[in-house]
């Protein structure tokens, strides 16, 4: 790929961090956002700058209109590739709102669905003017592909909305030079999953969880980053509008964690709430 401007939201940890590294080391100019993880963001930017990459981090409150306007004004160049990766989950939503369950429900939709929509509206006109662009929405196997009974309902709704946004944009842009995709990861080894699930499991419970997962392993963030990288290549255009199940197969067999044969226990029910 020729050198392009890449915007990755939620780039300080987990999948986002792997995405920033993949695109920066691939020779692109990378701008990424963070909400509260300033130190990891600054460390990552300094690390990659030390390798000669062009990387810059921006504090960003996704879903807050004023913050969206500020980010748009501060970006140092045109965005050719947008990766909507930032999101809140059942364990992190209260970083955005510490209120009633109804306020948390609203935060899921505002951050995970409305925020990406606003980002698309911000960068899409420039992509169309320049005659090229890629938009990759990182959703989740829960809500984006399959239904998990113990998943937070507003969380699942927000990921389903992100998948709909992908399909709607792809249809709207059918004759325009911008490709849109959705990637739906499963159980990825990220700090969010570690804090919300893995740290709370005893050895036997953790072993049982791993055995239930397809491939009997967790997905690495770098695997998702490599997939997104490939989607931004020209040859991936044939998949325009695709919603990719990147869960090692959990999306086609969610019962591995929640079905009658899974002997639902603490590990499986918590995993269903925590995948990607």
From TrEMBL:
Q: Which Pfam families match?
A: adh_short_C2
**Which InterPro entries is this protein grouped with?**
NAD(P)-bd_dom_sf, SDR, SDR_fam
Top-rank taxon: Bacteria
Into which family does the record put it? Belongs to the short-chain dehydrogenases/reductases (SDR) family.
Q: What is this protein called?
A: NAD(P)-dependent dehydrogenase (Short-subunit alcohol dehydrogenase family)
